[in-house]
Amino acid sequence: MSAKEGTVLVTGGTGYIGSFTTLELLVAGYEVIVIDNLYNSSEESLNRIERICGKRPIFYKADVTDQEALDKIFKDHPDIDSVIHFAALKSVGESTEIPVEYYRVNVGGTISLLRSMEANGVKNIVFSSSATVYGDATRYPNMIPIPETCPIGPTNPYGRTKMMIEMVIEDHVESHPGWNAALLRYFNPAGAHPSGIMGEDPQGVPYNLLPLLGQVAVGRREKLKVFGTDYASHDGTAIRDYIHVVDLAKGHIAALNKLRKDKPGCRAWNLGTGKGSTVFEMIGAFSKAVGRDLPYEVVPRRKGDVLDLTAVPTRANEELGWKAEMTLEQACEDLWKWVSNNPQGYRQMPPQMLLDA
Ligand code: NAD
Ligand code: WQD
């Protein structure tokens, strides 16, 4: 692929999913320009990308809500033809405390981005949506597992920012010929790079199950709190569709290629495995990777949680030619390799043995 045709701007490209997608883009032969304000990430992720694939994206420390900064980057890089937009605030709990900030960054940032893209003739966008837009799909008959045709109805401000952004993008694509958009609804990203030198490095207190289990395993947390054992699942705990982050990253390349080749307009795709696992099954799988039982205690349900978020991934399988291939066991092993070798995340170098491998 020639660099002239294949330059992609990745917002939030030093973050968890963004860094893995940047790596896959570089491996696939794209030129990549990353912008990130480093609010929840570290520039060190770019060094790790370079160690793994021998290439490095161009990086700008910039904020997606800064219209002028965005315009300058597009003007300085007239070869950009597509954007993958990850930059966002993503903590469900925090979004209930400071909702306006979530709307400002997530919705406002996307609007700045779309305006800059429009002003500079860039018409392909891949957007990080979330399975959280579906809310509680058990409200509808026959919608578990969840197809893209399930009516959306998020249950928290974070989810509502994603729903609004989907609507803004859809309206823009409808009204502007030549535009194409992939709304990628991720289920639960999991795992790390098999090398052990790239993974999730949240800057604050983690909210998600697997990073929390990782902290229990390395002794940074005494035990895991299991949020509810009174769900209508076989063991009483809630069901999620955990997808290896490397598979998820590859889904973006498939979606980008679809936009560039087939120009489908605006379309939503679920990125999941189609297989659900309960919290207890996840504790079991991660304990196996660690090699010992991990302590937990049962506490009441977390507000806003739903019974089951499992994808029907058929649309992405058929239309994007993409399928999640890695197992849950692999995700757990890779996560353990990452957290056990990098207890401080990107704030310390991993063992030389991993860097040399
Ligand atoms: P992350 O926090 O690791 O990555 C987001 C990145 O965006 C970070 O590097 C952060 O510094 C950057 N950022 C935040 N605000 C910014 C701003 N105003 N300007 C520029 N950069 C900014 O999160 P992630 O898990 O990699 O998530 C990436 C995207 O995927 C987000 O849009 C998130 O909502 C979405 N998503 C995540 C999950 C998940 O469970 N991780 C699930 C579904 C959807
Ligand atoms: C998974 C399961 C919890 C922590 C969230 C967002 C979603 C997406 C992914 C961004 C649930 C249980 C968790 C703990 C527990 N992010 N759990 N003890 O809630 O499915 O999805 O992250 O878009 O939008 O809503 O993920 O990892 O927080 O929880 O028992 O300490 O683990 O109840 O059943 P969730 P999660």
Automatic annotation (TrEMBL):
Cofactor(s) listed in the protein's UniProt record: NAD(+)
EC class: isomerase
UniProt catalytic activity: UDP-alpha-D-glucose = UDP-alpha-D-galactose
Span of domain NAD-dependent epimerase/dehydratase: 8-272
Alphabetized UniProt keyword annotations: Carbohydrate metabolism, Galactose metabolism, Isomerase, NAD
Pathway: Carbohydrate metabolism; galactose metabolism; Carbohydrate metabolism; hexose metabolism
EC number(s) given by UniProt: 5.1.3.2
Biological processes, Gene Ontology terms: galactose metabolic process
Pfam families (alphabetical): Epimerase
Keyword RNA-binding recorded: no
Gene Ontology CC: cytosol
InterPro entries named in the record: Epimerase_deHydtase (IPR001509), NAD(P)-bd_dom_sf (IPR036291), UDP_G4E (IPR005886)
Single GO term (MF): UDP-glucose 4-epimerase activity
Family annotation (Gene3D superfamilies): NAD(P)-binding Rossmann-like Domain, UDP-galactose 4-epimerase, domain 1
Subunit structure: Homodimer.
Function comment: Mutarotase converts alpha-aldose to the beta-anomer. It is active on D-glucose, L-arabinose, D-xylose, D-galactose, maltose and lactose.
Annotated family: In the C-terminal section; belongs to the aldose epimerase family.
Protein name: UDP-glucose 4-epimerase
Organism of provenance: Tuber melanosporum (strain Mel28)
